[in-house]
Amino acid sequence: MNDLDALTPFTRNTSLVNFLPVPRYLFAMRLSSTALLLYILLLDRASLSKQNGWHNREGWVYLIYPVAELARVLGKNRATVQKLLRELEGRGLVIRSHPTPGGATHYFLRVPAASAVAGEEAAFFSGPEKITPAAELEEGWLKFQWDRAQKSAPNKQRE
User: pLDDT at residue 154 above 90?
Assistant: First the structure.
């Protein structure tokens, strides 16, 4: 059986399952293709964190995704994944935090405010970038308060 045997035509009755949507604003960010994939994976994991109620006291959703697992999923080595995470941090899309010494890294994602508003996607394809670089983040990012009683086990994987 080859790969084509498992494919079916995309028709009006076809439903897509187990796929990763790509937010349109990412195309205006001029990210490397692998950084784009990494952000999409993190965004998918963040949706699980949101469903599971994983957030800090300010309501910012966080996710846990070990670098070794990210490297395995992307087919890259750990050093490459670290480089990609720095690229995303530099663009202001990802913030990494270590709430407890030696604990798992928590990732916070940023999305453009207009991404949730219908019809404003075009704003991301013209003019200057709309997302603030990480170096210009407000003081609030540095002052997260953590509830130590929150669980920090990895999210359940989608099947």
Answer: no
CA atoms 145, 147, 153, 159: torsion sign: negative
Supply the pLDDT for residue 116. Answer: 52
Pairing mode of beta strands 106-109, 94-97:
antiparallel
CA of residue 56 relative to chain centroid, distance: 17
Alpha helices in 28-122 (DSSP H): 33-52, 67-74, 78-90
By CB neighbour count within 10 A (0-12 exposed, 13-18 middle, 19+ buried), where does 123 fall? middle
Length of the chain: 159
Q: Taking residues 36-52, report their average pLDDT.
A: 94
Alpha carbons 58 and 74: distance in angstroms, whole number: 31
Kindly report the pTM of this predicted structure.
0.69
Q: How many CB atoms lie within 10 A of CB 25?
A: 20
* Number of neighbours of residue 104 by Cβ within 10 angstroms: 15
